[in-house]
Amino acid sequence: MTTLPPPSDRTRVRRLTDRAAYDQATIHAILDAGVVAHVGIVDGTTPIVIPMAYARVDDAIVLHGSAKSRLVMQLGAGAEACVTVTHLDGFVMARSAFHHSVNYRSAVVYGRGEAVLDDAAKYAALEAYFEKVHPGRWRDVRPPSAGELKATGVVRIPIAEASAKVRTGGPKDDAEDMALPVWAGVVPLVTTRGEPVRHVPDGD
After folding, report:
1. Which residues contact 70 (CB under 8 A, 6 or more apart)?
2. DSSP character for 163?
3. pLDDT for 36-70, tens place per residue?
4. Distance between CA 79 and CA 111 in Å, rounded?
5. Residue 204, CA atoms < 13 Å, CB-side half-sphere
6. Which of 83, 134, 175, 176 is most buried per CB count within 10 Å?
7. Long-range contacts: 143-150, Cβ < 8 Å, 24+?
8. What domains can be seen in the chain, in order of their start residue?
């Protein structure tokens, strides 16, 4: 893995800079904790943002979708993208309306897409996604056929220009509001896996 360069004009956080992080470990941890990224490109003169499943493989974000998808085709041709991942960790409840907030972890990555064309590399990228979603799943399922692999577009976006922003802790009330008879604190938000529900084919 490479070390990320200093923040660029695009990635430098300009507001609440104490929440910014530019180190590789923080950015990778935020990316690794997520499953869905919002991927933005400009299609002609129209900006579009699409939620996509992803995985981090070494120093790149790997995306997959239909080989005929507008976004996959443009990224495969080298289009520039902005990829964002956000985790909402809690509602911050203050004594005043103004100081309510949320605790969160977010990462923003800028980069040009690169098509993954080699079949072995495509298999590896898809395996990385499966293993992220459910470790061990890839070895249990039927792998993609040659036709399915051809119909699936895989692209990578290098994590070379990126930043993170994180908020933790409680509300930051004004001193004159501290005596107000209003509950203040944090309501945590946690995403957990439920019990698996077996699929039963029709007729069984």
Report:
1. 43, 48
2. E
3. 999 999 988 899 999 999 999 989 999 999 999 99
4. 8
5. 5
6. 83
7. 149/119, 149/122, 149/123, 150/67
8. 17-167 (2.30.110.10)
Could you tell me the two tokens for 12? 């430098």
Structure tokens at 114: 């690169």
Best CA proximity match to 20, nearest among 171, 169, 163: 163
7 token code pair: 């923040």
**CA 186/CA 103 separation, integer angstroms:** 8
Residue type, position 88, single letter: L
37 contact partners, CB below 8 Å, separation of at least 6: 51, 52, 53, 54, 61, 63, 83, 84, 85
In DSSP terms, which residues pair with 104 in a beta bridge? 88, 167
Tokens linked to 40: 């933005």
Rounded to 5 degrees, φ, ψ at 193 are -80, 135
> Which tens digit of pLDDT belongs to each residue from 153-204?
999 999 989 999 999 999 999 999 999 999 999 999 998 989 989 988 876 5
Say if residue 151's pLDDT is above 70: yes
**Could you write out the DSSP letters of every residue in 69-103?**
-HHHHHHHTT-EEEEEEEEEEEEEE-SSSTT-EEE
Identify any residues that bridge with 47 across adjacent strands, giving them in sequence order.
Answer: 42
Q: Distance (Å, rounded) from C-alpha 104 to C-alpha 150?
A: 38
- Give how far the C-alpha of residue 8 lies from the chain's centroid of Cα atoms, to the nearest Å: 20
Q: Taking the CB of residue 161, how many other CB atoms lie within 10 A of it? A: 19
